[in-house]
Amino acid sequence: MKAHHLRRLTLTLRRLALPAGVIAAQLCACWSSAAVAETAPSKLIVYGPVPGLTPSDHYAVRLRPAGNDAPWQTPFVFKTASKAVGSQGRGNVTEGYWRVLSGWSHSYVNFEMAGPVEVEVAKADGTAIRKATVHPERYGRNVHLKGGKAYFNIEKPCLVAVDIDGAMRDQDTGMTPSGKIYSGPPLHGLSIFANPIFPDKPRLGDPTVQAVKPGEMPPTNGNWKTLAFLPGVHDIGLAYPLQTNRNYYIPGDAVVYGTLHGTGIRGGGHDIRIFGCGTLSGDRLTHPAYQNPPVLGGKEGHYRDQIYRSIMIHGPYNTTVEGLTIANPANGACSMWTAAEYDAMRPTLIHWVKVLGWRVNSDAFGQSRNAVVEDCFVRTQDDTIYPCGLGIRRLVIWHDANGSVFLLTNLSFQKGQPLAVEDCDVIFARNRGVWHNGGRIFNMRGEGKGEGGRDVVFRNIRVADPRPTLEAFQLQMVTEKPYAWPKPMSRGPGDLAGVLFQNIELQPSILGQTNLLRGGAECKIRELTFDNVTIGGKKLESIKDFKTNEYVEDIHFK
Questions:
Q1: Is residue 458 part of a domain?
Q2: What is the total count of domains within the chain?
Q3: Of 196, 220, 237, at which residue does a domain stop?
């Protein structure tokens, strides 16, 4: 393996172990409006105003190195919002937006750190904060209120949500225990994205760097190695073509509207790096199904809807996506499609990526067989990830209206290769209904084919949401009523066999839904192991803890 490829594989661990102050302030100070504070033993890179963009009208945030009297710094607070669709239209969605989330928003800040950081959160309108909790809770230290503001410390890079005044923790925001759907006022979330310090940022004046000014259309080719967006607002339109052996940099004080796509339909997406703390936004794009005429997906539409995915790369290897916030994707957020034959020694790496999606089909990661996905934050209204590939770890996940956390359809892609999905936190698991065949933590919904599950482990998964709407397990090889919406489906031949679920902490459904294992004649569920899996602190001990049928066999409990 080449040295720079090995460096990519170990990048995250090295960053977390960086001694304070080893990265010089010149990495970013000359490129954007980022301010650098360095006081032993901490370092903090904060991105200020974004020219041409208005900050969040809900929250204000200040930051400083923890444990000293360093001056506060003010990062730019971004906001992404679900369209206020009201009650017009038919069904649950209008223009792809869920009506239950009409007018909701999510504010967020991105910064880079090496060493502890203190965070101050205030409401933008000046009213007092009455309660604040950090999720996952273990990342927020010394959480307290003072003068109507919330304060807490972050010890190391992490991606968290801050629940203000119990908006999520203290009420049911999907379907309520009475069977009704939440109808209260719009809720406004907040995230603090504390990134590691990203190395190798481009420098102005470097002849290999092509700077892109706001309002300019970036070149698709030329005598440059790195395309770097300057601070401000950019619009690249649909399917800006990525080139092999190139870097694309979006700093924390820039937002780029549009989508990025690897060259070619079936290959060519190799040796690409997309990085930076900036935002890639789908706000200016209509969902493909609501175009006039609609843009169809799947084989019928020759995959024409793929150009609406925020990042879509075919045939990726030696390719990295790191640090970006993907806001309001019009279709999928980050899809890496690898051919059946791939080289695990030339992986795709997706890390420190944040997905904030409001619409149907806003799946976070369409993962490839040679991908590692780690240290990401996902709030989306469709599925988080289809586990397969080289590894999935340290994800923070939040669902409001729809979507499964782990959709097991693609486990057959592993073909005996080991996979660990581990150390993940589901902070909120809400849903607007029970009748469909998705929306659970672990889900199989009668799609795909082929045997899978050997040497696959889900371990150290924590569902901390005290009010999850639905049950955690709904593994249906064949879907049946009442969980068969939009239609009954059956997975093709091939069993789900050999999966290990280990050290899983779950909470009971507020609706009293029971966990489900349902196999089929040609697609059984067998040889699953539940090792220290608890629901509300009570360990699963026997098959009687599930609804099953005759095609479920040899299930083990420890």
A1: yes
A2: 2
A3: 196
Residue 420, in any domain of the structure:
yes
Which tokens belong to 159?
């991606």
Q: Does 311 fall in a domain?
A: no
CB 394 within 8 A of CB 352: no
Domain boundary among 172, 196, 220: 196
364: helix, strand or coil: coil
Which residues have C-beta within 8 Å of that of residue 487, sequence separation ≥ 6? none
| Residue 474, strand partner residues | 443, 516
Q: What is the pLDDT of residues 238-262, one digit of tens each?
A: 999 999 999 999 999 999 999 999 8
CA angle 464, 278, 93 (to 5 degrees): 60
Is the confidence at residue 5, as pLDDT, over 50? Answer: no
Exposed e or buried b for every residue in 165-197, given b needs 16+ CB within 10 A?
bebbbeebbbbbeeeebbeeeebbbbbbbbbbb
Kindly state the average pLDDT of the residues 14-33.
Answer: 37
The CATH number assigned to the domain holding 110 equals 2.60.350.10
8 A C-beta contact, residue 113 and residue 75: no
Choice between 441 and 301, residue whose per-residue pLDDT is larger: 441
pLDDT tens track for 282-310: 999 999 999 888 887 765 555 678 899 99
Which structural domain range is residue 177 located in? 3-196
Are residues 458 and 416 in contact, defined by beta-carbon separation less than 8 angstroms?
no
Q: Is residue 547 part of a domain?
A: yes
Give the span between the Cα atoms of 177 and 180, in whole angstroms.
7
Which H or E run contains 444? strand 442-445
Cis peptide before 207 (omega within 30 of 0): no
